[in-house]
Amino acid sequence: MLRLTVYLLLAVISGVASFFITNSTVVNMTAGLSMGLAVPVFEQVAQNREKLRTLWYSFRYRNQSVRISTSYLFKIYVDGKYLLIQGSRWRNQYQPVGGVHKVSPQGSAVLSAMGVTDDDLIPVDAASYRDLRVRVPGKNLFQFFQWFDSRLGREDSPWREFQEELLASQILPQDKFPHIMHNYLKHEVDPIRWSEWAQAFEILVADVYELVPTPEQTQALRDLASTQSADVVWVTAEQIKRRGIIPGQPPSIEISAHSRRVL
């Protein structure tokens, strides 16, 4: 953002200066400088598009309270199919392994100073305590995302949900997964929207990881795929896109909308 600001200032100064300078050579130089700065300005705008959008939100929704929910999801893909797990709160649907980021006490103090409050849409219980599902004053949206992107005071590993949902539940054998390797795939920040469900403006954020299993872990996943269990399903990309529907067959499962993020 600092580099973009500098480029913009230089471009504006050189452009304005060209109107007040009478020397044709100097005018050509300042105009050329202004045009030359256009390329890096456009590049910086593209690179900082998400930050600029959030900056605009901070102004546009400065008098609103915005609901923000951040999560991380696992892409677990073996032999052409994706592993989805039965939802803990919505038992009638399947979704990727993962969950809402947790906040440390230090992070909670930072958020409190911003005027951030807990979201009351889902009751706070032992499972949801310190979830990063919050209401942020609109004027502080840019500050909130600066904090979130710094990764300070919040969960920064997908291990907890993997362990809770697949190992502690004994869906996968713990001895085969004493640790895991994963790739970080992408960071998605949805455009702000009005949520009828929350009756508030809302921004959903997701970090997506890909499990990189060892040969032994891959075999354990294949063993899981070969067994019948109501806890998990293995589905194709097309089934995820269709929310579980298979053309020509009666509905048998429902897949969450956010499962598309792992594709």
Structure, briefly:
By secondary structure, the chain is α+β, with helices and mostly antiparallel strands. The chain has helices at 2-20, 24-47, 49-60, 105-113, 141-150, 159-167, 215-225, 237-241, and strands at residues 65-75, 77-78, 81-86, 94-95, 98-100, 117-118, 133-137, 182-189, 193-195, 200-211, 232-235.
Account of the 3D structure:
This protein is α+β, with helices and mostly antiparallel strands and 263 residues long. The chain folds into two domains: 2-47; 63-262, Nucleoside Triphosphate Pyrophosphohydrolase (Alpha-Beta Complex). Helix content is 38%, strand content 22%. The strands form two sheets. Strands 1, 5, 6, 7, 8, 9 and 10 form a seven-stranded mixed beta sheet that branches. Strands 2, 3, 4 and 11 form a four-stranded antiparallel beta sheet that branches. Strand 2 and strand 3 (81-86) form a beta hairpin. The protein is globular and about 55 Å long.
